[in-house]
From TrEMBL:
Its cofactor is heme b. Belongs to the chloroperoxidase family. It comes from Pseudozyma antarctica (Yeast). Pfam families: Peroxidase_2. This is Cloroperoxidase. Keywords: Heme, Iron, Metal-binding, Oxidoreductase, Peroxidase. The keyword Repeat does not apply.
Length: 413
């Protein structure tokens, strides 16, 4: 078969994005991804197991409505972010079957190994890790508030550590990992994001997998800003951060890890051609935005780098915005850390640019009478729920891949 692609020695600096254009079939894209993504052997093996489990979960997600009709499982509670649980008080089996079984298993394991709450507190306080924390941590969850509300966001200060990922910064803003963003244990972070955004455990682990070889030497404990290492997950031409080589590092040392109001305003709200505001963004809008950013970076950034993995990570982030935040423009503005009129803790760069911090969209709903306070007529609670709420096992890798490939193929078209 004669290849339509140019021989490798003739590729120019900017050709990485156009090299697939001749034959941009999904099979070729997948083959290139497999060729370029060669992590450690153990990570590969773990990923294979994760994919198998994920396949099972995706099938379960597809049929869960039927299982509810057949009364095999109970429907999910309104509040899909699970309330607090631990090995000694697991969540109900009918709603969280796997977590229930895991909690029971970990309870027995804790009993046999003499691990208790006191030891856990000690580990948390000194950022030590118990043995087998990757299994153990899945059995603990502190919840997000007694009524399922996310609470007041913590305005990050200069001393706090933040990363280029709005999703992870939100975990720190709402105290799901330590608000300082320092000495974060990867196992706790992965568990936190899986529970908070209703992302399947397999998908949450897969999101962390590129960093596994990077942080193994230091026991998977890091400050959030350490995630900005270039071209592991952080990449050029992303929607919400400038390219590494285009940032003014002297005047703005936090350029990669803080929200950029101009970029937020540029992509959210997305305007229709006749200038009307758009409520929800679709995969087409994200693909168009990515395409514009990639072309811009190629033109203006002399050190622009990209390969198929980086591109898919870029469209993968868009997939998270679409699937977790439902593509809702107003929600995504808050997720991305936009400055709003009453936002406390807004900071200013040396250039005089104002910027906020990433947070859960403040969607208040009128609730029933406040518990224990019969005089209060109605309460207003912050009740944002991830758009992944209706999937029994949360967003799986297969679902994410489907959306990611959709966005990527459109961006390349
Ligand atoms: C272990 C899990 C995760 C890791 C290690 C991670 C890491 C990163 C990194 C390093 C970036 C910067 C990419 C760049 O702009 O160059 C990023 C971007 C992003 N991440 Fe994450 N992330 C994770 C999970 C999540 C989750 C669960 C969400 C959503 C709920 C999320 C949403 C985003 C978004 C919206 C972007 C910005 C994309 C853009 O600017 O185009 N991430 N992530």
């Amino acid at each position: 078969m004669i290849s339509k692609m140019k021989p490798r020695e003739h590729w120019g600096r900017d050709d990485s994005h156009t090299m697939h254009k001749d034959d941009s079939s999904m099979v070729r894209l997948t083959l290139q991804l497999m060729q370029q993504n060669r992590p450690q052997v153990m990570v590969n093996l773990a990923l294979a197991v994760i994919f198998l489990v994920d396949f099972w979960m995706s099938a379960f997600n597809m049929f869960h409505r039927l299982l509810i009709k057949l009364h095999i499982i109970a429907p999910l509670a309104d509040n899909c972010v699970p309330p607090a649980f631990s090995p000694t008080s697991p969540p109900p089996f009918a709603q969280w079957p796997l977590t229930h079984l895991l909690c029971r298993g970990v309870h027995v394991y804790n009993f046999l190994t003499g691990y208790n709450e006191e030891l856990r507190l000690h580990h948390d306080l000194y950022c030590r890790k118990p043995k087998n924390e990757w299994i153990r941590d899945w059995a603990y969850w502190e919840g997000i508030g007694s009524q399922g509300e996310w609470g007041t966001p913590f305005a990050a200060a200069d001393s706090d550590s933040r990363c280029p990922c709005p999703g992870l910064n939100i975990l720190a803003t709402h105290g799901i990992i330590h608000t300082s963003g320092r000495k974060v244990a990867a196992s706790k972070m992965v568990v936190g994001l899986s529970r908070a955004f209703n992302i399947a455990p397999t998908m949450a682990l897969q999101l962390y997998s590129p960093l596994f070889p990077v942080f193994s030497a230091r026991g998977h404990i890091f400050d959030l800003e350490d995630l900005s290492i270039m071209n592991v997950i952080e990449h050029d031409a992303s929607l919400l951060r400038p390219d590494f080589h285009l940032a003014d590092w002297k005047k703005d040392p936090k350029a990669m890890c803080r929200p950029h109001q101009d970029m937020i305003d540029r992509w959210f709200p997305a305007r229709l051609k006749h200038g009307q505001l758009k409520d929800d963004m679709t995969d087409r809008d994200f693909a168009e935005a990515l395409c514009i950013r990639r072309n811009e970076s190629r033109r203006h950034n002399r050190q622009y780098t990209s390969n198929v993995v980086q591109s898919l990570i870029g469209s993968g982030s868009c997939c998270l915005m679409l699937n977790v935040f439902g593509g809702k423009v107003l929600d995504m503005r808050e997720m991305a850390g936009s400055v709003s009129r009453d936002l406390p803790g807004v900071r200013t760069t040396e250039h005089g640019e104002q910027y906020g911090y990433e947070r859960i969209p403040a969607r208040t709903i009128k609730g029933d009478k406040v518990q224990g306070c019969p005089m209060a007529a109605a309460s207003h609670q912050q009740k944002w729920q991830p758009a992944t709420a209706k999937r029994f096992f949360g967003m799986t890798i297969f679902e994410a891949l489907w959306t990611t490939f959709n966005i990527e193929m459109r961006a390349r078209a």
